Amino acid sequence: MPEGDSVWRAANQLHQALAGQELTASDFRVPRFATLNLAGWTVSEVVPRGKHLLMRVQGPDGQKLTIHSHLKMEGAWQVYPAGGRWRKPGFTARCVLRTAAADAVGFSLGVLEVVRTDAEDSVVGHLGPDLLGPDWDPAEAERRIRSAPDVPIGVALLDQRNLAGIGNIYRCEACFLSGVHPASPVSAVEDLQTLMTDAKQLLEVNLGSGRRVTILNPRGLPVGRQAGRPGYWVYGREHRPCLKCGTHVGHDVLGKPGGEEERHIYFCPQCQPLLPLL
Ligand SMILES: [Zn+2]
After folding, report:
1. Is there a domain that residue 228 lies in?
2. pLDDT for 74-85, tens place per residue?
């Protein structure tokens, strides 16, 4: 499952390549929209909403549509020079949008649909406040998370109806930074605001290109971008020593939400004691 920062980067790249441009061809390789042809339409903008991508297009007659996609587990949007050779297998392409200068190709998209722009709420209206959005509302996010006090905090943080943008890596890392075991219930977490602020900071420092890291110095700058250094405190580091206390990092599976990958949690049993339901 992607993190909000990768969706933000994809939206940014697509916006740079497509905004203001007229589509010369479109190809939707999903049955429901196979006959839709957006040639002659102009891309207004591409915006991220949590882990969802919204590409807004306007027809010659002023009609407004939104191409809604979600990367889910394997999806990716890539931009090539017009006619450029794709770096992923053609049979995995789900959407191809061409302009005079560029081809944007969505591969293995978990969701691809087209809705009227004034009906976008039908596809993203359920999302909680977006950690990377202009409307980020930490009090509302806390209210939503605390409405289910028995749910493990690690599950609540991935539930995009509570707050949008956190995937498994930042879920694990933000819990570590707060000393909270991801399987502890929401009711046992005293300071949700600090936990969410940490998650937001991790997303923000990773908006640029380069290796994703969550280890920051006291000034909030990443220190693990060099090859050979750990980039994460606990994510993917099971059986290795905790970078704070030396205890072996633990690994377990938790709850449900989305895909398989999201069930895996990493934590330091010493720094993140499992707290009981209050
Ligand atoms: Zn530790």
Report:
1. yes
2. 899 999 999 999
